[in-house]
Amino acid sequence: MNFSEDKIREEIKRLKDKLKVTIVAHYYQKDEVFEMADHSGDSLQLAKIAAEDENPYLIFCGVGFMGESVKILDPKKRVFMPRVACCAMAKMIDVDYYDQNVKILEDMGVKKEDILPITYINSSAAVKARVGEMGGYVCTSSNAKKIIEKALQSGKKILFVPDKCLGQNVANMMGLKSAVIGESKEEDIKEAPIVCYNGFCSVHQLFEVEDIEFYRNTYPGIKIAVHPECKPEVCNLADFVGSTSQLIKYVNSLPKEQKVAVGTEYNLVHRMRKENTYVLSSTKPECPTMNETTLQDLYKTLLSIENETFENEIFVDENTVKWARIALERMFEI
Length: 334
Ligand code: 13P
Ligand code: SF4
Fold this sequence. Notes:
Distance between the termini: 47 Å
Number of helices: 15
Number of domains: 3
Order of helices and strands: HEHEHEHEHEHEHEHEHEHEHEHEHEHH
Number of strands: 13
Oligomer: single chain
Bound molecules: 1,3-dihydroxyacetonephosphate, iron/sulfur cluster
Helix content: 40-55%
CATH class of the largest domain: Alpha Beta
Structural class: alpha/beta
CATH superfamily of the largest domain: NadA-like
CATH topology of the largest domain: Rossmann fold
Radius of gyration: 20 Å
Strand content: 5-15%
Shape: globular
């Protein structure tokens, strides 16, 4: 299969039409893959688009939890991923660690029925199912505030997993206290309405207060826009905090001459308007797992559908689908 890149592109287009396959790609995918997609978007948009798509086959260029979410929402659809690469943050929590955190709260005197869990969509199907069983919700970075607001109406303590930064940032936006299990003092955990799991995104941890200071000193008047997976001290200093699609909208809304430094994954920032847009870090903020997927992988996946060998198909067991779907649908209801 020593085709040139152009020939691979041609073949991908031919197979896509022949096989009734829809290709979706997250904004963080490499350009070569991103350009082949029928649809691109943030986690929430892609989950919706992919689950509502009519084609029997879907190829998801992204990270594992994204393909799983589509399979959970539409179990009849055959979902494939050119690389089943797992988001590093999603890997920081499994069902045992989730249960351990619930137990820690119980040992502090919080009854299980008084805990309402919310999991960021960047988590495994099994963790989503656990959250669903406990009456909780899934959220994404674009709707986290809305979901937390709704959940707080229950009067229960929110256990937010796995991203402590997203949980803390939403709490700050709402003027509420938050605490992190494993970091905060017991009295703070007991008092805070939002208690976070100690997980984070290693890519978004790269953005520092010093980066903001550097850009503000170098280019007076520059705007700073960051993803809510960045540290709270970074988000607090930014002009805008939003999901990937919200960041794109914000940058596009600025006058062309307005300089802006963006704190999110490199491929997306690099694809934004070319002039007066900067990556908010001197270290290249590439997501290693998002970047695993290549044009060759996408081509191989299409070939495997044509040959009916069906490689890298996503499966989620029935019981997990049942409960994870409840947690995902609760999010869509809001
Ligand atoms: P979005 O939902 O904003 O696309 O974020 C997904 C993600 O993994 C960010 O690191
Ligand atoms: Fe996961 Fe971070 Fe990569 Fe997003 S950027 S997919 S949270 S590791």
